[in-house]
Structures are given as structure tokens and as C-alpha cells.
Write a structure and sequence with these properties.
Blueprint lengths: L2 E10 L2 H12 L2 E6 L2 E5 L5 H6 L5 E6 L11 E7 L9
Parallel strand pairs: 1-4
Antiparallel strand pairs: 1-5, 2-3, 3-4
């Protein structure tokens, strides 16, 4: 199975503000907003595009737990299979 790095998720206090900053810096656009999460990318990540491209991953910025008492990794890396379905990778 071959996979490709497809998404970087960052927990943060203000996803909208951070998305606006990174869109300006990287020339990205907002591709989705849902449940407080903002996703930005330089291209529209579809299954076909992920399989056929080696472009940069898109970024998901989501609200993080404020005042947390347990250490949590604020970054999450996603990889997606490019030569089989997600169900087949299990």
C-alpha cells in the first residue's frame, strides 16, 4: 500500500484568524468550514486529485481545548492511500 501525506490538522484558539493568516502567507483559500474547523488549501482535495497529485497537503485548523490540564499533541498528520481505498487499507 502506498499513501500520501494529505492533511495537517492544527489545534488552535482561533481557527478563523489563523486560517486568514496562512491564506495570506501561502496564497491558499478556504475550502471548507464546519463545526468551528476551517480547512485551507492551494487546491481542492478530492479522491481523484489526491491519487493523481503530489502537491502540498491541505491544512485543517480546529479549535483546541483552552485551559487544558492534560498534555495533548496540537498537530495531527493524515495520510491517505493512493493505490487502494481507505476501507482496503485496514
Amino acid at each position: 500500500m502506498t499513501s500520501r501525506f494529505t492533511e495537517l490538522t492544527v489545534d488552535c484558539r482561533d481557527p478563523e484568524r489563523l486560517a486568514a493568516f496562512w491564506c495570506e502567507v501561502l496564497g491558499f483559500t478556504v475550502i471548507e468550514r464546519s463545526e468551528g474547523k476551517v480547512e485551507i488549501a492551494s487546491w481542492e482535495p478530492t479522491v481523484e486529485a489526491i491519487s493523481g497529485r503530489s502537491d502540498a497537503a491541505h491544512h485543517a485548523l480546529r479549535p483546541g481545548a483552552e485551559g487544558r490540564t492534560v498534555r495533548k499533541n496540537p498537530l495531527h498528520l493524515d495520510v491517505s492511500p493512493i493505490d487502494c481505498s481507505t476501507a482496503d487499507e485496514r
